[in-house]
Amino acid sequence: MVVIGILGLLVGILAVAVIPRLTEAKNKLEVKQVGDLMAGFQGIAADDSKRGKLGKKGVAEAKGEKLYEALFKKRLLDDALLSKIVSLNTKTDNKADKAWIEEEGGTMPANSVSYTAPKGDDLMKVMSLKGKGRKIVLTFNSRNWLNYEDQGAIVQWSDGETAQYMNKEEATDEHNLDAETWTNSPSEIIGEKAPFDRTFE
């Protein structure tokens, strides 16, 4: 009984020591993943043909999850990025395979996107905003908003070199967002309140 008790104590100590480190590692990998997504967007910006398709029907009006669907379907984003649009710490989403892309009339499976995105015909404009006019290009959608509750929601600023985390204190103190809404109703912030008003679920 004593041995079992000691083993239980050791397991508890290990959990307390290891879990925060694993979460911290995921935090960093999440930043890299968002960087890979942004590289995909920048690839569109650098290609005249791809950039022109952002204004076409089926892409121009698409936003958020529907924009990702359109960008993969139209081959504007490489399908290698399919696994990158699901948060590493999600409790709700699953990575989709690429079968739906090949399928005639195929649509992206539900809950296979964890991030927001601008409207198709606004993507390049949002990405170019700098300084006082800068905006959030992508962040977690409301399902994934609290994936890293202690760190905050991941955000990619339009003029940011890499993604970072915005916590509730920064959101309220620097961006005048309501603390209760931040925690409990992120859907009232995403696509609605600056600086999140040009990115959508």
How would you explain this protein's 3D organization?
By secondary structure, the protein is mostly helical. The protein has one domain (2-188). Helix content is 41%, strand content 6%. It has seven helices and three strands. The protein has helices at residues 2-45, 48-53, 65-73, 99-102, 123-128, 168-175, 179-184; strands spanning 136-139, 153-157, 164-166. It has a three-stranded antiparallel β-sheet. Strand 2 and strand 3 form a beta hairpin. The radius of gyration is 19 Å and the shape is globular. The termini are far apart. The model has no long low-confidence stretch (mean pLDDT 92).
Largest sheet: 3 strands, antiparallel
Order of helices and strands: HHHHHEEEHH
Radius of gyration: 19 Å
Q: Given the C-alpha coordinates, what overall shape results?
A: globular
Roughly what fraction of the amino acids lie in strands?
5-15%
State mean pLDDT (0 to 100 scale): 92
The tally of helices reads 7
Estimated structural class: mainly alpha
State the low-pLDDT regions, or none. none
Number of domains: 1
Side-by-side strand order of the widest sheet: 1-2-3
> What is the CA-CA span between the terminal residues?
52 Å
Helix content range: 40-55%
List how many beta strands DSSP finds: 3
